[in-house]
Here is the input.
Amino acid sequence: MKSCFRFPLALLLLVAAMSVPAETNTRITTATFQWQTSHHGTWQYLQYLPPGYDPAGSKKWPLMLFLHGAGERGSDVHRVAIHGPLHHVQQGQHFPFIIVAPLCPANQLWKNEPLLALLDHLVATHRVDEKRIYLTGLSMGGYGTWNLGIAHPERFAAIAPICGGANMIDVMLGTWDKKSALQQLPIWAFHGAEDEVVPVTESERVVNALKKGGVKNIRLTIYPQTKHDSWKPAYADPGFYEWLLKQSR
Here is the structure.
């Protein structure tokens, strides 16, 4: 007599699966690929050369890289002097360092790769003291200053972000990946207490996170009755430039 007993289909499938060796049953494999990208573009910038600067001379000069805000983006490079150090140059003030202010194209943000390429270009074509390169910027340029300074602290003698902020994952990774260089980087941030565009908490949380990450030479100046124009008192303060010039890698 033939037996009528049959295994359920689900049980048969389970038994079959269990009988296959684990190394041939996995759906996770490894693979590699090679890649290459090519970015290119053209940036305009304004530059200020201090009195006594000689392109053929032996003296090297400190360099300030200034990043403007979102309102100055576009195709008119002269807009980069609306605010910031070059505005003071237009008012007749002189500084003992080179100032370079690039123009960010319309509808774009500051990106590290072209900024680093610009720095390399300036070092190659100007009498730049590489131990005294300073980075500063306002609003969108404050964000750009935080981003570039945290990612590449070894390139700068000091950074000064004004009314900006940063992605906290970038801050955390910076304190891990660039810990030694970042801990040695002097930082002076500025913000207005009544800023309604970029709240002062944006600067506070970055500064506090960097302090927790071991950065000691860092401070935040908050102007109590200032809105989204804290760059005005910051860049008008002679003490700010005196502090910058004292910093060297």
Remarks:
- Confidence is low (pLDDT under 50) at residues 1-7, 9-20.
- The CA atoms of residues 68 and 80 lie 6 Å apart.
- The two ends are 94 Å apart (CA to CA).
